[in-house]
Amino acid sequence: MKGLIASTVFGIVMMFAGLGSATKKSIGLLAVVLFAALTAIGVWDVVAAPTDAPVLMFNNMLRIENYSLWFNMLMTGCSLLYVILMHKDIAKVGSHSSEYFALIFFTLCGLYLLSTYNNLLMLFLGIEILSIPQYILAGSDKQNLKSSEAALKYFLMGSFSTGVLLMGIALLFGAAKSFYIMDMVSVLHTESLNPMAMAGMVFIMIALSFKVSAAPMHMWTPDVYDGSPTPFTAYMATIAKAAAFFAFLRLFHVSFNNLSNHWTMLLACITALTLLIGNLTAVFQQSVKRMLAYSSIAQAGFMLFAVLSVNAVAWQGIVIYAVAYSIATIGLFAILVKLKDYTYDGFNGLAKKEPVLAFAASICIFSLAGIPLTGGFMAKYYVLVAVVQQGQLMWLVIFALLMAAVSIYYYFRVIIAMYFKAGNPELVAPITLGDKVALLFTCALILLIGVAPQLFLNV
Amino acid sequence: MLLLLLILIPIIAGILSFTVKGPGARTVALGGALASLAVAVPATLNSGAGPLSYDQAWIPMLGTRFSLYGDGMSTMLCLLVSIVFSVVLIVNNNKSLDRPNAFYGFIMLSQAGLMGVFLAYDALLFYFFWELALIPVYFLCSYWGGEKRITATFKFFVYTFVGSLMMLAGLIYLSMQTAGVNSYAWPDIVRAGASLSPDKQQWVFWLMFIAFAIKMPIFPFHTWQPDAYEQSPTPVTIILSALMVKMGLYAVLRWLLPVVPAGVDYWSHFVVILSVIGIVYASCLAIVQTDMKRLVAYSSIAHMGLMSAVAFSHSVIGTHGIMLQMFNHGITITGMWLIIGMVEQRWGTRNMTKLGGMATVAPRMAIAFVIISLASVALPLTNGFVGEFMMFAGLFGSADNGMMLMVIAGLGVILGAVYTLNMIQNTAYGEAAEGIKVADLSLNEYVGIAVIVGIILILGVYPKPLLDLTASVAGAIAK
Lengths: 459, 479
What we know:
Chain A is mostly helical.
């Protein structure tokens, strides 16, 4: 877990980098280099990890499994991709560009805790370390009222959900007499289930549902995603969300797997509602940015499938889903941020003007819609397999597939606008060769996940 | 290896076409289509002796392999695909096409998808190609289609996408039931399906059937079809109606009937009735159409309805007839669309009330049109007759109410004669409008149409090669 230390150190380095007279460009470059270094450290962590047993660290507070390290590495890689694609846009948001990068490093630090926590206190700490930088990033465009509104909304709702989380943890401690997630599994049994434990579990489920924007705890998402500066929305909707999902899965599969018959139905209802609200509301959006906010809710519904199914495939599913979804969404946001007009009409005629951008956007959209040969298909495939293997929930599978068909409607509107409608989209800045290469690389990654998903899984 | 080439050649030709600027794209695509024809012929001949296969590891952890299988039915359909693509590319020489490189690139990619669908022997691979065939067609219709293309294509896309997702759920469920490690190989899927209880088979049946019924299309899942056919440019209409609907029928024969026999038994009567309703309903609608494209679109629903009715009536001779008819319908309707495309290009309208006198101004075209139309109503000595006769024999012999169903389905033939001959009368004969000057078939059109008419006549007199090729497959499916 050198990554945990490194992310903190790099974050502090980034903060100090802004003190001198460094230009925005050099700060951006420094950030890219540091993220590359962090990715390399992530790879090193994976390679150096002992294969047989998990490592306990920090007085047993962290329990480092191989798949956690693998997840960390992939998510760090996605962050690197994000920074490469967007560092120029991040620098444009405001005058404190070095601090934005520092905050992104700190969210990664939270992600590392969330993927390895062994103790509920660490879960709490991880959630906070992940969230607080996001509150700040949401409000980083200080001149913009919507940005400030987003930050305030996010902060208030986030604090509220953290309160619920703490309450749940306290109740669980009352029932299990321990904060360690491994201890709970031996204490919590269906036969002698303490109502306190049940209440605690539901509270934690609600709090985590809030973090992953599952309905009906999703209300904050559209406003926050829409109001935040676009580059940061991309980060919140992808890597930060994936981290919360991993924590969700870890807790429910490790601590509560004996109790699955108590929580499966509740979570299945949350999943169905999330899919329904996310997809149906996305249909009516006129702004692509807001559509992507709802689409992120809809995609969360699919990721909840992995949490629902207590089996080995679910772990693979969450990893591949997190990667495929993050890459495609980041790619799409990287294109969106280059446009002046965020409505569907703003995309009209993009294929004529910037064919590479339109092509890349199409691949990202195919992936989000789950068309075969893209990563998004494989991601959906894995979580579907997980839930089919679980049995019992075939109705949910069919419902989800119908909702996936609905999603075609709003995703393909972007393609229709780009390819089949005439227009002259206004760009914020000219597209450089570097942008194009990075976007095509993103497409290649998406297709690679779609053709050879085994490369992205450590089994 | 031949089978792999059948998929690879169109993919390579498609990618090359994208990179070529100007009219060279058509040449590249045509070259690809002819090359795949050159491979499809020996593949078909070889598969007469025994099925060909190709197998390669792909994604082991999903239990899926890149495995292809070419028995008589598969290779026959691949041959059909390559003939149709070659003819379409020979005839279609539209100089004013916008962005020809993308157009021909997408055309070739859709060919690759179709070949893959007909050859895949692994359920997940089959699903991949099923979708791969759809995406290029979506772009082709949406970019180069008629006025209302965007809504029409969108409807088409959403319909088929819903269906294929349902199919995916069914396939995943089946692969979970395979013994030991989950597998998508065809024999394993068949074994898994047969081992399910009849209740569960019915579930799986519906999940998969919806996908295939939308694709074919069977009444009442057909509503996407007339709009999509009408709005697509002619080459794409041909791909849709001559080839993509065969995907649905082929899938029923390969991935539904053998896989969930108990589910099929329970619902087959229902499906037969739906299909027969579709025949009569579509024929009646075809009679009142004035637009030639819509007329042929509805007639296609009627023809496919007969094939699906027979497919679900468990008769060897009927299934054998379907094999023949899949090929023949593909050939005939290709000719039909080509002529309609030429009419539209020359007269500037497809409205039959405004047409007439083709026989006086363009006699060759009129002769070809008449022959193709007669094949479409299954006149003896044309290719349509033998297949249709066998199918009716099969339907007649099927267990319950076979005779009654056959009589009602037979109405479709009579009604078919009504609207087809009516169309001939309105377009080929009668007075040519004053001052209309149209050219008869140009050389490339002549070649393409001659191939179609030649196949119609040859197979009408001597269908034995095709019957021999598919005999064992038909026997195995309908057992």
